[in-house]
Write a structure and sequence with these properties.
Blueprint (H helix, E strand, L loop, with lengths): L2 H6 L2 H34 L13 H14 L3 H5 L1 H11 L18 H6 L6 H22 L5 H13 L1 H9 L3 H14 L4 H9 L11 H7 L3 H22 L2 H15 L3 H6 L7 H7 L4 H24 L4 H15 L8 H16 L8 H12 L15 H13 L1 H4 L10
Length: 418
């Protein structure tokens, strides 16, 4: 039976696509326009639309300020959150509409190596260049290795216009880079496992998103990739020690442990509680911090288990990738609205796979779930917007949907990655 004949016999399919076209798509477009209006208005008059972000690229200001301080030999400045905040407020006063409250540097010193190429460009030039470079890298990663060129182009467009993307650009964050490394790494495993591991090892610059990578590689029995990832992370760390000295590492390692066990109250007040992590949302819903920490640990275990099951299974490469992207966000002890870029890619991979059968009605629940995730950056921060405190449930639901195929799947030939 031809597709046209089959489509004509399924009026419900046509009706459901009409619902998607005339109701859900316009709603998503309005949300997208709002996100970009917030970005543009922050350049003109911060706070006139949405949350007052003080200035564009305040997170990038931290990255840029840290690498410039390190190059100037002012390592002690990076190690003291109050002094570093004062430095940012002094040197970038003309860029800020009001002073920053508390913006410490909590990233591993290896991140400074990746920031080095942007240091000579000035604050604004480096801010723009970093977003363009990482956005282009993500687009290339999504396009190369995708099973369908046309679908990849649509996915790239959706990801780069999403509210998560505009939020990433607004804060000057690195979600494009994180997502690009995960996508490129997973898609390279089948053909170039050592290079894939090396790419995934670079995620160590933001370790909360590297947590699930070993589970994926072990599930695939990709030991060469796992070793390459460890070597890549080690080389990046050694480069940072050679360039900037070991003092930063001596300071950072116990600081990172302390931030998990007994975090700086200022960091909680001005940083962690403003994110979308399971911990932050649980605390904002009124649960004691210890209970919230247990829930965060459960999210890590659940995400690790889901990742291992997915990569051990016969799911397609893109669905395995989607599980890893969603699991990385759910497992992370700290994440922001910009990290929803990873979730948008995961949703896009899910829906693109379903849309291949054009004669089938779209799964309304899956599209509504995708729409909810599309809105996550706009129902942010959870500290202000109660609905944002339930964002982790959307991520957990997405992982459940991605794994649901395992219940009914036969055992076809293993995917090329396996």
């Amino acid at each position: 039976m031809s597709i046209s004949a089959e489509t004509s016999s399924l009026p419900d399919a046509r009706s459901d696509w009409t619902w998607l076209r005339w109701w859900l798509t316009p709603a998503a477009l309005i949300a997208t326009l709002y996100g970009w209006a917030e970005l543009v208005s922050t350049f003109i008059h911060p706070g006139s639309i949405g949350l007052n972000h003080i200035a564009p690229g305040t997170d990038w200001m931290v990255f840029y300020g840290a690498v410039r301080s390190a190059l100037a030999g002012h390592l002690s400045l990076i190690m003291n959150g109050d002094d570093f905040t004062a430095y940012l407020n002094h040197d970038f006063a003309d860029w800020l509409s009001v002073p920053l409250q508390f913006r410490p540097w909590f990233y591993p010193p290896s991140f400074l190596v990746l920031l080095l190429p942007f240091a000579p460009l000035g604050l604004v030039g480096s801010y723009v260049a970093f977003q363009l470079a990482t956005g282009g890298f993500l687009a290339a990663a999504l396009y190369k290795g995708g099973p369908d060129a046309a679908a990849s182009r649509y996915l790239i467009a959706a990801v780069l216009i999403s509210p998560a993307a505009s939020n990433n650009m607004l804060d000057g964050q690195c979600a494009f880079l994180v997502a690009g490394l995960i996508v490129a790494g997973v898609r390279l495993i089948a053909t170039r496992p050592v290079l894939a591991g090396a790419v995934l090892g670079l995620l160590s610059f933001k370790p909360q998103f590297f947590l699930l990578v070993p589970f994926a590689l072990i599930a695939l029995d990709q030991w060469r990739s796992l070793v390459a990832a460890a070597v890549s992370a080690l080389v990046l760390a050694l480069l940072s020690a050679l360039i900037f000295g070991v003092d930063l590492w001596i300071w950072w390692v116990p600081q990172a442990i302390a931030n998990l066990t007994s975090p700086d109250p200022k960091w909680v007040e001005y940083g962690r509680i403003w994110g979308h992590s399971v911990w932050a949302c649980a605390v904002l819903l009124g649960l004691p911090p210890k209970v919230a920490s247990l829930l965060q640990f459960a999210a890590l275990l659940g995400s690790a288990t889901a990742t291992f099951i997915a990569f051990r299974s016969s799911l397609s490469t893109d669905k395995k990738l989607a599980v890893l992207l969603a699991g990385a966000v759910l497992a992370a002890p700290h994440s922001g609205p910009y990290d929803a870029v990873l979730l948008i890619i995961a949703v896009g991979l899910l829906l693109a796979g379903e849309a291949k059968a054009l004669y089938r009605a779209p799964n309304r629940m899956h599209w509504l779930l995708g729409f909810g995730i599309w809105l996550v950056p706009l129902i942010s921060p959870p500290a202000y917007v109660v609905a944002g405190r339930f964002a982790p449930l959307l991520t957990a639901a997405l992982i459940g949907v991605l794994l649901s195929d395992l219940r009914s799947a036969k055992r076809p030939e293993l995917d090329a990655v396996v």
